[in-house]
């Protein structure tokens, strides 16, 4: 199965550099890498060009004008440009375990949305990684991560619990998921009516649920390391609350489609 790795970014080239360095060392390489750029400056272009010379698969820089936080637009553009059947999506501040791509491909199933695991790195450890421009995973149960259990990769245990599937909308994270491209297109992708931070991923997944897709939550597999940072958007929690209406609407009306979505880019 061939896959496209999509990395969402906005004006943090030092973090993106660490993420891209973890792509180079993957045990199972993606077939292409697409940088979904929500309007970054030229400093990000430098990082992308450097990375392109280090990897054997195509690298596509999908850039859009900076008109505020337009995450759904950026994701839709990148997915529309992808060439392969399976989509793996991460954020530009989440460094990947060397078996990240391998894990997501292993658990890929028709009718399934796969949610990986995210270890939250502490501020001091993140600053050291950024300053050294060299990633090293923190030791298990170290003080460098808030949710230490998510540092552990146990593939055999993951397989034992992989049959569990749900339609639980809680803890949806757009920074670490995978899905078949055809299922994204079926619901018209991310809702571009959402133009502020928050709930764009939950609303997207709720429409997947409504269309018959189940969530598969990976534990001890699909691990990424989230670099510490302050939120991009001021009062982001307030913004997320305002976007609850979009999620509630998808739930109450059992929506499987959004009017303003990925079909704009085909």
What does this structure look like?
The protein is an alpha/beta fold. It has a single domain (3-265), classed as Alpha-Beta Complex (Spore Coat Polysaccharide Biosynthesis Protein SpsA, Chain A), CATH 3.90.550.10. It has ten helices and ten strands. It has helices at 13-24, 42-52, 71-81, 100-106, 123-132, 155-160, 181-186, 200-210, 236-242, 244-252, and strands spanning 3-9, 32-37, 59-63, 86-91, 94-96, 112-115, 117-120, 176-180, 214-217, 223-226.
Biggest β-sheet description? 7 strands, mixed
Helices and strands: which structural class? alpha/beta
Given as residue ranges, the uncertain stretches (5+ residues, pLDDT < 50) are none
Tell the overall outline. globular
**Strand coverage percent:** 15-25%
Strand order of the largest sheet: 3-2-1-4-8-6-9
Number of domains: 1
CATH class: Alpha Beta
CATH architecture level-2 label: Alpha-Beta Complex
The CATH homologous superfamily is termed Spore Coat Polysaccharide Biosynthesis Protein SpsA, Chain A
Distance between the termini: 23 Å
SSE ordering: EHEHEHEEHEEHHEHHEEHH
Instruction: Tell me the Rg in angstroms.
Output: 17 Å
Q: Kindly state the number of beta strands.
A: 10
Named CATH topology: Spore Coat Polysaccharide Biosynthesis Protein SpsA, Chain A
Percent of residues in helical segments? Answer: 25-40%
